Description:
Elements: E1 3-9, E2 14-21, H1 25-33, H2 35-38, E3 49-54, E4 61-67, E5 73-84, E6 88-96, E7 109-118, E8 121-129, H3 133-141, H4 144-152, H5 155-159, H6 162-166, E9 172-175, E10 180-187, H7 191-199, H8 201-207, E11 214-220, E12 228-235, E13 244-254, E14 258-265, E15 273-282, E16 285-293, H9 297-304, H10 308-324
Antiparallel strand pairs: 1-2, 2-8, 3-4, 4-5, 5-6, 6-7, 7-8, 9-10, 10-16, 11-12, 12-13, 13-14, 14-15, 15-16
Helix pairs in contact: 7-8
Amino acid sequence: MPVTDISTNAEDRTMTVAADFAAPIERLWHAFTDPTQLERFWGPPGWPSTFSEFDFTVGGKALYYMTSPQGERSGGSWEFLKIDEPRGFEVIDAFVDAEDNPLDGFPSMRMTFSFESTSDGSRMVNTSHFDSPEALEQVVAMGAAEGSRMAMNQLDAVLQDLRDYAQGKGTRVELLDDTHVRITRLVDGPRELVWRAYNEEELMRQWMLGPDGWEMTECVVATAPGEKHRTSWAPVGDTEGEAFGFEGEVVLVDAPRRAVSTERMQGTEGPETLNDLNLYEEDGVTLVTLLIEYPDKETRDMILATGMAEGMEESYARLEREVLSPTRS
Length: 329
């Protein structure tokens, strides 16, 4: 994980985040000054950013909002005060409302980003300067320190070429905390087609089957918030196992980038998970990221112990083989 230190200083009214990366300073600079790159990490998992404006000039402004899995939005703005490529820049950072006006009751802060080369790559130091100890305390109480850590720890995937970062590494499972799991898989195909494979019954039936020896017996696709989805599987022939299925409701859709839905075993009241699917394309391949929120650690461990990740890997391999490969022939 790249974050090496997060500290607060009530006397100086500052919060400082330091992180080291195995990438040159020029690459780090680009990640922080290109809004398409910022959108991949500026915000903790489950709260990705969308930059609606980015005027990277002294006196210019950037506007963005972060969206939760439930569709809640938290807006922010940067006013650029200094720019010193590639060593750093300085902004006034503020919370804003839906009309991009400063949000009453929330502090603004002067924020500096400093970049320097190291023997292993580069280092970022981000320091937020507050007008009062109370403003610092308010932002820390909102979870800014842990949110910054989780956001910066997503940068490795951004700084590397996507193929170098994920190709050939299969389905990877990361335990973020007791209730959140991040699953990633690079698939060899464009995002538009991967999105369709998740949202069209004909395509889903070709690949979302788990291990060999199972068939999809029911597939009710939901593509808009409020719609219900339902999927069932059963063993075929001599395959051991009992039929099962999942159902739930779509919460948020931002096609072809993101879809959030609830999920539980059919015929039960839970436990229910919140599944946050994100797709990012680069150089003809798509990184699939699934952030799952469990109700508790026990449910998380129970579901992971079923071999879920292994079944997902077989499905993703089938997606490449049965759905994506034929489009390239």
